[in-house]
Amino acid sequence: MKLIVSSPPHWHSGYSEKKINLDFIIGLMPALIHSLYFFGMHAARVIALCVAVAILSEVILRKIFKNNIGPFNGSAVYLGILFSMLLPPTSPYWLIVFGVFLSIFIGREIFGGIGSNPFSPVLVGMAILELSWPSHLNVNLTSVNYNLGFDCHSPLTALKSAGADYTSKFSFFELGIGNQVGGIGSVAIIFLIIGGIYLLIRKVIRWEIPLFFALGVIGMSAIFNAIDPHNFACPWFHLLTGNIAIGMFFLSTDYASSPFSNPGKIIFGLGCGILTVLFRVLSVHEDGVIYAILIMNLFTPMLDKLVGRPKMLKTAYFGRGIK
Amino acid sequence: MKKEIKFNQEYDDIKIVELPLPEHIFLPANRKNNKNLEVGDKINKFDEVVPGLIFPVTGEIREFLKMYVDGVETDVIKIAPVKNGGDEDNPERNDIADKPDDNLLLRLKRSGYILESIIDSDSDIVVSAVDTDLLCSVSQQILRENRKDLNQNFELFKKIFNREKIHFAVPEHLFDMVWKLQSRGVNVFKVKPNYPNGIPEILINSAIEKNSLKSPLYLKLEEFLNICDAAVTGRPNFKKVITLTDINGMRNINVIKGTPLSHILKDSDVSSAVKVVTGGPLRGYANFDLDTPVTDITDSVYVQYEKDVIRAVNNQCINCGRCNGHCPVNLSVNLITRYSEFSLFEKCRDLGVDNCIECGLCSFYCPTGRSLVQLIRLAKSEIKNLEGEIEQ
Question: Which of B79, B242, B268, B345 is the most exposed place for a label (fewest CB within 10 A)?
Answer without folding.
Answer: B268
